[in-house]
Amino acid sequence: MHATPAATRSNGGFTFAEQPELEAPDARILWRAELDPGALRVAAFPIDAAHPDAIDASALTPWLTIVADAAGEHAVLSDGWRRIRIDIEAGSLAAGHPVIIHYQLSGLASAEPRILPLRRLLDLYRRRRFSISLYPHDRRVDRWLLALRVHDAVLAGATQREIATVLFGEDAREVSDGTRADSLRSRVRRLIRDARRLAAGGYRFLMLARADGADPEGEP
Question: What angle do CA 145, 147, 152 make, to 5 degrees?
């Protein structure tokens, strides 16, 4: 288990700021719960290990990162590619002893985005691995990755033509038809606009967008 003794709640919408030199699969980012509708709110209290509802918290240690502050423990379970966010508002997972977890779900709109993370947590505990079937591909991720590449290219001084050539290869080099050329230019301009918006703070709303089915630019 990785633990950080205190949280800083000012950097970029995260409960703490990860070391920037870490590769993405090694980083453990804890989004603040108000920006991550899938964050599970729980209480974890000691219980006899023989109890049928007991969870051995030590079994979660290989994937568990915890940050503590006055509000409780902020945790993420992650293998570097998949994740489950948990806020422990009473009790503790850090001690590693058997606990019973009380899941705080209520209402309709607020409970719905937490159902899948709860299934993921229970499945992880039973199988001791993250089940790919519970992490379906989100097609918007491909677009966001393109926007990230475009942002890097813009910062490096690349022109729209150069960006189009790198992203779309020979299609961009050999376009002679006016309609196709206009389409490529429009696509690159949209990616540049998306990149700037995300870099200006729009990235904070990616989790919210995934919960309600809309992207952070307000498009379906």
Answer: 100
DSSP state of 9: -
Contact 39, 84 (CB under 8 A): no
Please state, in angstroms and rounded to a whole number, the distance separating the CA atoms of residues 78 and 41. Answer: 17
Q: Max CA-CA distance within the chain?
A: 73
What stretches of 37-137 show up as alpha helix (H) in DSSP?
Answer: 112-127
- Residue 30 has a pLDDT of 85
Query: Is pLDDT at 104 greater than 90 in this prediction?
Result: yes
pTM of the complete model: 0.76
The two tokens of residue 211 are 């919960």
Nearest to 88 by CA among 29, 35, 42: 42
Would you tell me the crossing angle of helices 160-168 and 178-199 to the nearest 10 degrees?
A: 100
DSSP string, 152-210: HHHHTT--HHHHHHHHHTHHHHS--SHHHHHHHHHHHHHHHHHHHHHHTTGGGGHHHHH
Distances (CA, A) of 79 to 10, 28, 63, 192, 197: 25, 9, 6, 31, 29
Q: Is 202 or 125 the better-scoring residue by pLDDT?
A: 125
CA dihedral 164, 22, 33, 219 (to 10 degrees): 0
